[in-house]
Each structure stands twice: as C-alpha cells, then as structure tokens.
Amino acid sequence: MLSPADAQERCEALIARARRAGADAGDAVYLGNASESVSVRLGALEEVERSESENIGLRVFVGGASASIGSTDLGDAALDELATRAVAMARLAPADKFAGLAPEELLLKGPAPDLDLDDAAERSPAELRRLAEEAEDAARAVAGVTNSEGGGASAGRGLFALATSHGFSGAYAASSHSLSASVVAGEGSAMQRDYSWRSTRFATDLRAPADIGREAGERAVRRLNPGRVKSGPMPVVLDPRVANSIVGHLLGAMSGASIARRASFLLDRDGQKLFDSSITITDDPLVARGMRSRPFDGEGLPTSARKIVDAGQVTGWLMDAAAARQLGATPTGHASRGSSGAPHVTSSNVVLHPGTQTPAELIADIADGVYVTELIGHGVNGVTGDYSRGASGFRIVNGEIAGAIAEFTVAGNLIDMFAAMTAANDLEVYRGIDTPTLRIDGMSVAGD
C-alpha cells in the first residue's frame, strides 16, 4: 500500500494524463487496504487471513459527458492507458447536465484537519489469536452455552487519496481493530445463538475480550425457550443494536439523490417537524478517532458537524454535487467515492441524542409490549415509508422485561413511527450510527 504522499502523487499524475488525453476536467481516487484477521472455534485455530488491495479510479468529463474507469495497476504505462480509455468512453457517452466536479470555490483550502484516525501500533497474528481465544473462552464459560460459532480478532488500515483537475489534492489513512464472539445456547431444536462485537480505530480503545465474550454468552442464554406473542397494536421498544436501523432508513430518505428522483418518503417534508421536540440527531465527520470520520468528502469538500434533525425538525437533505445541482442547492460535504463510478451520498458519525429516562423508566408504564433485540428481513419501502420486519426479543409485561419471544413481525409507517418515538438515556457510541434504546408506541405486532 502506498504512503499518503505517494497516493496523492499517483492521483495527480493520472489527472495530468487525462487532461493531456483531451479531458475537460476530472478527478482521481486511490483506495488502499490491508487487513489481517484470526478466527478460532472451540479453542482451536480455524482461520488466519491477510488481504491487501489497492485501486485507482479516474472520472473524466468531456463536452458535458462523463466516464469512469478503474485499475489495480498503478504503473505509468497503465495510467497512460487508463486516461486514454476514459476519455474515449466519455466521448461516446450521453451528456448529463448535472454531472461535474464540485464547485471550485467550495473545495477544502489549506491542510486537512487531523482526526487521529491512524493507529501506528500493529498486532501480530499471535496476539490476534490470543484476543480471539479470550473472547470465545469467556463466552463459552457462561452457563447454558453449549456450542460456539467462534471468536474473531482483526486489524487493518486503509488509505484514501483524491485529486481533482481544479485544484484539490488530499489523502488520509485510517486504522481499525475489531473483536467479536458468537455462541450457541441450548440443545437440539431449542438452540439459540447471539453475538457481541466492537470495532475501534485504536487498539487501546477496544473493550476487553472477556467482556465481549461474556456479553455474547449471556445474550444467547437469555434467548432460550422463546414463546409467542399475540397480535395487536402495542408499544415496541428497540434495543440500541437494532434501533440504529431506524435512523438508517431516515438517512436513506434524506439523500439528495433520492429526493431528486422523487423516490423518498420524505419528499416535500424538508423543514417539517417529524419527531418529538426531545429528538435531535447529529452527523459529525470530525470526531477524533470516529469510525466514520473523514477530513474531506469524496469530492474534496470540507466536512463539518450538523444537526440533521434539530428538536424534532428535519433540517435539510444530504447532498453531493450532482444532487445539489438537480435540487438547485449547495452540496453538503456528504459525497463518498469508490474506485469507480460517480460519487454517492453517505453520512458519517450519526448519533441520536439520549433522552432523560433510563430504559427501565422508559418501559415502566407498558402493560403489554415487546422489546426487540433482532430484526430480520428488509421489508421497508423507501418511497412510501411502509415498514414491516420480522423480529425476536422479549415480552414486556407490567413494566418489566419478561420471557423471550420469537417469530413475530413489527409493522408501521416510518413517518408515524418517528412521531411516536421516545429515547432513553443509555447511548453508547461505537457503531457509526448510534442510538439509545428507543420506544415507539402504537406499532402493529403480528404473532399468534
């Protein structure tokens, strides 16, 4: 994998070649990744894997049309051929009045902010194996755990570089360290599985492997002997590890590209109050050591923190340059890039801010409800907001978490769900999209 300076140089060199080949404008991206992972199962080594990859991509604009092409060969001859082919492809492509580089006046000027994303420490395969074994051992030590799907540990590093023909050039590296455990409780047809994991930028920020393993084991045992729930409208409480998916649906609907295509259930709702006033959701790409932090976006624009929902009110769309042109607006620094193709919209470190009640207080007045710990399937219509997903979890009876339940469905419409949402105070930030426990009243539950 190249150094940040070398990656920038390769991108700049590719842009220069494209201009010489006849491109009016263009940008080039470099993506490099290296990772190592170790997995164990039942105390024995199961797999050691190392992977390395690097790609360079070129997007050119010729006479209002564009084309993208990528390569894993970064040599001078390969770059010459890449530039020539990209320009030839663009000359055959139809014009697109919305395509183009981000406005030059909006580009990041000066040095990119240092977000402390790159951990210089490296972990050996032997150390990764030790961590994976500790996590699995702790999970298997929980009474009731009968089998294991394994423990895993990994470490990796990625590099992103971008250069444009109108003056931007930048690069940054980011590391990652992960631990996981997944185990089975019970016997025969009564078996249940569950898991726990953590991923951080720096190795020293990870939870102890024994804590991760113990959590996986306890979760699996709690799910044993699930019952069924009767159908009807009732409060649904979402565990934080599934509640973040609700915010994910919101983010998809807030994409400027979806709005421009008129394919979003939030169409014509910009600025409307969709949530209770207690709900605020922020998107902050400048969090130090954040799992989705980035000093600039995929088009060279500076990134900044913003409230995407402020006291219940939607504050606007997430836009790359193309979507902004379609909507007559300004790009918001949310463009992301792969090694080929046009930019697309992505969020960064998204947090739904905590409320004032503990989870116990949040459910205290629920006489009959469900607490969801797992969601199954993809039954969400991004155009209408209709929501229906399989689920498992626990009953809530007279304000208390009761027995495990499975094979039921929770359904509603996301607009109605947003309006009925209440947040607890147990926020923990580590997923990229993070929420506390969420309560949504009036959902439809289909069971027996």
Automatic annotation (TrEMBL):
Which residue ranges does the record assign to the Metalloprotease TldD/E C-terminal domain? Answer: 231-447
Q: Which Pfam families match?
A: PmbA_TldD_1st, PmbA_TldD_2nd, PmbA_TldD_3rd
The Metalloprotease TldD/E N-terminal domain sits at 27-90
Its GO biological process terms?
proteolysis
Region Disordered: start and end of each range? 328-349
Report the domain of life of the source organism: Bacteria
Domain named Metalloprotease TldD/E central is located at 120-224
GO molecular function, one example?
metallopeptidase activity
Q: Which SUPFAM superfamilies match?
A: Putative modulator of DNA gyrase, PmbA/TldD
Q: Which family does it belong to?
A: Belongs to the peptidase U62 family.
Q: What is this protein called?
A: PmbA protein
- Which source organism? Novosphingobium taihuense
